[in-house]
């Protein structure tokens, strides 16, 4: 009985050793495959740093030529209807189509949520952004 137990233990130990060695060999192959990828990431990082330095070297005159963002301030007074607000937005060039603005405002159930006050809106804002500004 002792001989059988010893044989089973030796066989089990041998199988465990073989399996763990196989796993180790497979992992080493995967690590060797990943090393070039790490090098590529390091090269990419170096190239990115070089590009950032080039961007910093751009003459300031070209940066200053960039057009500045325009803002329009509108005043919404007590008693203004959504139609009146749409007229103001259209006349100030903030929206292109009053009907689209009114339709979206109504579909969002925000026609009665327009707040009184002075609102500053960036030109080129979407209708949703404008609605968010005038209702908050």
TrEMBL record:
The organism's taxonomic lineage, starting at the top: Bacteria, Bacillati, Bacillota, Clostridia, Peptostreptococcales
Protein name listed in UniProt: YceG-like family protein
């Amino acid at each position: 009985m002792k001989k059988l137990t010893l044989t089973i233990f030796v066989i089990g130990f041998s199988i465990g050793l073989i399996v763990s060695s196989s796993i180790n060999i497979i992992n080493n192959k995967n690590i060797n495959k990943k090393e070039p990828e790490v090098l590529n990431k390091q090269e990419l990082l170096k190239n990115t740093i070089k590009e950032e330095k080039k961007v910093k070297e751009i003459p300031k005159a070209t940066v200053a030529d960039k057009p500045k963002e325009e803002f329009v301030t509108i005043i919404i007074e007590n008693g203004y209807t959504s139609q009146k607000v749409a007229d103001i937005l259209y006349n100030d060039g903030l929206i292109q189509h009053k009907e689209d603005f009114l339709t979206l405002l109504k579909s969002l159930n925000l026609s009665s949520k327009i707040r009184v006050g002075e609102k500053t809106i960036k030109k080129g804002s979407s209708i949703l952004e404008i609605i968010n500004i005038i209702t908050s």
